[in-house]
Structures are given as C-alpha cells and as structure tokens.
Amino acid sequence: MTLRIDIFCRVIDNYGDIGVCWRLAQQLAVHQSVAEVRLWVDDLVSFQRIAPAVNAKTPTQLLNHVDVHHWSGNEAAFFPTPADVVIEAFACELPAAYRQQLSGQELWLNLEYLSAEGWVEGFHLQASPQPESQHKYFYFPGFTPNTGGLLRESQLLAQREAWLKSTAAQHTLLQKLGLAPQQITDILQHRLRLVVFFQYESAPLAALLQALSQQAQPSLVLSPRASDVALARSLNLASVKVQQFGFLPQAEFDQLLWTSQLNFVRGEDSLIRALWAAQPMIWQPYPQSEDSHLVKLEALLQRSSLPPLFQQTMLNWSTGYRSDLVQQLSECLSMENWDKWRAEALQWQATLAQQTDLVTQLLRFSQQHVRQR
Ligand code: TRH
C-alpha cells in the first residue's frame, strides 16, 4: 500500500527543526511506497533560509514533491482529513482542529531529537496512547540498530564521491561563495586549508585561529557570522583569514562540507551531515541547562573510535576548559595527526553507513502498522 504522510514542524529556534523535517519530507516524498507528503511549518522565513525556493508569503506551495503548508497558529484553521501516518516533530503538539479529525487508525509518531545516549534504545517505538488514538509511538533517531537510524539519502554517499572527483563543480560552488580565483585554486590544489565554521556564539574561535596560525599551511575559515570576521581582524594573524558566507541551500551546504578539509558544526542536523562528509570535524552541541549537552557530546564520543587526543579536544571545545585548547587543536592539525584524523572520519562514516537509514526504518514500521490495522 502507498502511504499518505503528514509532518508537523514548529521552529523553536535556529534551523535544526525545519532542517530535519525538510530532509525527512523530501526523502519520503520520492519513496516508491509513499503517495503524498504534506508538511506544516509555522516559520516560513527560517525555512526559506535553508531552502530559497520557499515563498515565505504563500500559505501553500508544492516544493520538491512536498505539499508545504504554512501552519499559522490559528487553532480553528481548516485542516484536511489526516493522512495514514502523522509525524509530530519534536513534540510540537498537533493543532486541536487536526487532532479532532483523527479516526484513531492513523499511525502517529512523535519524532524525537537525536541523541547517542544509551537510554534512547529503551524508548524507541514505545507506545504513548492518547485519547484520540492508541497508535501513538515515540520515534528516536540514533546510532545503533535498536534506534530509528539516521537520515541518509539513498544516493548521498555516491553523490559525495562524484563531487570530490569534480574540480569544476567545487570551483563553481567556491565562486558562488565569493572566494577570489587564487583562493579557489589554492584550495583545490591543497595549498590553502578550507575550514567551515558553523557554530554557536560561545565557540572559542580565537583558539582555533591561533592553532591554525601555527601550521605551515595557511587557512581560510568560512563562517556565516559577521562577528567572526571582525574577531579574526582584531587578532591579525598573517596566515589565517575568516570570510563570511551567505546561507546556502541545504544540498549546497552538504557540498561545502564535502569540499572543506575541516568542519566545525553544531546542533543535530549539521552534525550528521559532517559525519557523512567524512572530513575531520568538531561538533558543538546546542548549549542546554545543567550541561545536558555535554552528556550528549560524551555519548557521541563514546560511540566513536576517535583516539583520546581528538575526543579530549572536542570535549574541551564545548566545556569551556580552554587553558590548553590551542595546544590540543594544534596537535590535532599537525602533519603527524592530520592523516590519522582523516582516516578516522572516513572510518566513522563507513561504520554509520552500514546502519539502515531513518526513512527506510520509519516506512517499514509504518507499513507493518497499516497492514495490521
Ligand atoms: O540551527 P541549529 O543550531 O539547530 C539547533 C538544533 O537543531 C537543536 O536541536 C535545537 O534544539 C536548537 O537548534 C534550537 O543546528 P543544526 O541542527 O545543525 O541545523 C542547521 C540547519 O541549517 C541544517 O539543516 C543545515 C542548515 N544549513 C543550511 O542549509 N545552509 C547553510 O548555509 C547552513 C550554515 C546551515
């Protein structure tokens, strides 16, 4: 049976909520077992930042086979008959007018935030019955076979391979980002290290710039934040430059992560994209109260096979324990460790790619549910 799927997404902050939902919606929409995907999102302006084709003034639009609706917040607004599978992203709470129309037969999934912590396995696919439906379940993405897996488009890794072989494609992207011809040539001929820096404001960029300046190879750091450019100017380091880039559509942001030699990413979605990019990377989790983000970071590191130097550096990057951070970063970047770091990144990608991806798992569960009802 082909499925109809509804996804609801509230943008709480930043771009991760819509980032995940948009990837999910697009992947589901082109799957042979899916007839229709509708995506309700409350913030079209944030959505447009990662998908410029979005018209932020239109209440409904068809984009990449996904029927996109603006979720206006008006609880009495009209909602059509619910689909076979209803995905409530990150406990966003379905609108009352939609809930009232549930027949009780739909599969209702609460898509949760990604975490590498061990407890996730025990909660994935646990039932959460509601007055309107007995068929509500928690769906936890994750890094192990007992979780819901990670988002990975079926052609993603092949596309990355092809991209890395195409100097022309990489050249075009770097040109679009406003890099000078000489910078592009130097990056593509590995005379200039390209670093992507997508981090929260608390990230210790100055330490990174100092560590980069101690290397034989000069570096160009690309950041979407203007204040990062100003900070670099104030440090005035001869061999390191920071340049601002405008937000790219999601697919091009992936390509940038593939081209870059070192990726600094944040939140959950760009973490996964950096893991698929298989380049050395440092992840900064979204800072949370009581340091629960550090628990997430430690859990991720425990699932990796990164040697202690890289693990400790990544921890120090987010803990604020910085006295020897420049030294640690410098060691990671040294000729001796750099190749090790690259090999680890490739190995991590290959290991994770053996897992069944999130969309395949979610659709398998949905089909089983639909057959049984
Ligand atoms: O934007 P984020 O910081 O989102 C975070 C997390 O999702 C976190 O869970 C949430 O609680 C917090 O916000 C409030 O980082 P994340 O998850 O990496 O999402 C960024 C998205 O933006 C991702 O889909 C990639 C996309 N992006 C582009 O498409 N183009 C770009 O140029 C850049 C820089 C990002």
UniProtKB/TrEMBL annotation:
Check the record and name the NCBIfam families matching this protein: efp_Arg_rhamno (TIGR03837)
- Family stated for the protein in its record: Belongs to the glycosyltransferase 104 family.
Q: Does the keyword Secreted apply?
A: no
Q: Which InterPro entries match?
A: EarP
Molecular functions per Gene Ontology = protein-arginine rhamnosyltransferase activity; translation elongation factor activity
Which keywords does UniProt give here? Elongation factor, Glycosyltransferase, Protein biosynthesis, Transferase
Look up the domain of life of the source.
Answer: Bacteria
The name on file for this protein is Protein-arginine rhamnosyltransferase
Taxonomic classification: Bacteria, Pseudomonadati, Pseudomonadota, Betaproteobacteria, Burkholderiales
Provide the catalytic activity annotation: dTDP-beta-L-rhamnose + L-arginyl-[protein] = N(omega)-(alpha-L-rhamnosyl)-L-arginyl-[protein] + dTDP + H(+)
**Role noted for this protein:** Protein-arginine rhamnosyltransferase that catalyzes the transfer of a single rhamnose to elongation factor P (EF-P) on 'Lys-32', a modification required for EF-P-dependent rescue of polyproline stalled ribosomes.
